[in-house]
Amino acid sequence: MPMRGIAPLVALTGLLLAPPAVAAPLLDPQIRAAHFEARLGEPLAALTRLQAERRQGFLDHQARSADLLLGDMLLQQGLDLPAEVALQRVGEAGGEQADAAWFQLGRLHYRRSEDAAALAAFAHIRGSLSGAAQQERLLREGELLLRSGRLAEAEQRLRTLLKGRKKRSDWVDYGRFNLAVTLFRLGREDEARELLVSLSKQNIKDPTLRTLSDKANLTLAYDRLEAGDIDAATGYFKKGRLTGPVSNTALMGLGRAWAAQEEYKKALVPWLKLSKRDSADLLVQDALLAVPYGFGKLNAYKQALQYYQQALSVFELELERVGKVERQVNNGDMVRALAAGFSADDVLDRDVLPALPKASGASHLWKLFSTHEFQETLRSYVRAGLSLKKITRWTSQIKADDGLPPASREALLARAVTLETRLTTLSGKLQAHIQFLALQELEQRRKRIQAYTAETRFSIAQIYDYAAKRWGGK
């Protein structure tokens, strides 16, 4: 479903909502006034002031400072397109503000998965940024270069990030993990393993390090599994937590490691544990088939049949759940439920979006929820809804204001109607696009479950056929 024409309207809605904090105050009084109004919760006044003063040439003597502040304010409100224009002007103008502008542009393109544009923006930075900004830049560049296959350059950026760092930071820790991945791809496996082993031994009380430690152990486990070193692989699999972001992958991998040695009794232990978790998870669905497969390998056909039948029941239930979520999507319930979780204060907070798994249909749409396209479309939809409510309040205030001249009242009401019409159209387009994305994801999930259902029915038929041939005549 095309989204042409939506971006300009999205920019309009952002002007009606409250802003977060912006950049530090600058010396020019007009810039400081815009900053002050933004901090007081007057985004329309702040942006209007800054943009008007800029367009009329009153800030030409500090154009780069004004544009840098303007770009930051727009970015904080999620208005990517006008922010990009302002920051691009600063970057291309050069000077001491250019590096900050290119850094912001690089982050913006990185978040939007525009890898080439992000690398190009970061490449324009001429100096060294300060503190965490420099660490973030090096990590992002390393990731982007790794994704594009420019491994030698990725290694150089990541080693620069790690060089001389005595105090730990999340940027550096993730840099070590990404460097290990880079070294694996370069064929320097011993160096990669050394880095991963050091990560796996880190202080697990820190949440970031706990996750990285689990990922490091998981990577080492699969590395050893592919090499045929099953004992080492199972050791690394066992080091991971039984809860956490990668625990399901670890449980499935541990079972596969045992199965590779035909130790099916041992393989069934993690597979059974995994099969009891949320059946919306794709790895849990894999485990539902792995368990009866393991029993079949042990010639325990009665148990195999039992678990295949259980799997079939779960898959049929999952198909019903997918259908239920589809109905929630089609009638708009899901979109409204997602939007209801936001307020005017947090709609622009990018850290709010990971909380979406609590929303309706989340367990079936988590993969979609994590994408930039979905998040930005949802945020724009919420902003449009909040802006419509604000226009309704304005309309009531205009009608109730007896001090307004009739001509002014009519002009304001006509403008309110125009804005309301445009925002209603925008909201409808955004909701339709969210629904399109969700239905597309659900259709893919349905096809996968249907394939698993067919495979399960076939396996059940095989067991019955085997039983008939072996015991049917007795």
Residue windows where pLDDT falls under 50 for at least 5 positions: 1-27
Silhouette: flat
- Using only CA atoms, what is the Rg? 28 Å
What is the helix tally? 21
Estimated share of beta-strand residues: under 5%
Element order, helices and strands? HHHHHHHHHHHHHHHHHHHHH
Write down the overall mean pLDDT. 81
Helix content: over 70%
Strand elements, count: 0
Helix-strand category = mainly alpha
Biggest sheet features: none
Instruction: Give the N-terminus to C-terminus distance in angstroms.
Output: 62 Å
Give an account of the 3D structure.
The protein contains 21 helices and no strands. The N and C termini lie far apart (62 Å). It has helices spanning 6-14, 29-39, 43-55, 63-76, 80-93, 98-111, 115-123, 131-147, 151-162, 170-185, 189-200, 207-227, 230-239, 247-260, 264-275, 282-297, 301-330, 333-340, 362-369, 372-400, 406-471. Helix 6 (98-111) runs antiparallel to helix 7 (115-123) and helix 14 (247-260) packs antiparallel against helix 15 (264-275).
Topology (elements, then pairings):
Layout: H1 6-14, H2 29-39, H3 43-55, H4 63-76, H5 80-93, H6 98-111, H7 115-123, H8 131-147, H9 151-162, H10 170-185, H11 189-200, H12 207-227, H13 230-239, H14 247-260, H15 264-275, H16 282-297, H17 301-330, H18 333-340, H19 362-369, H20 372-400, H21 406-471
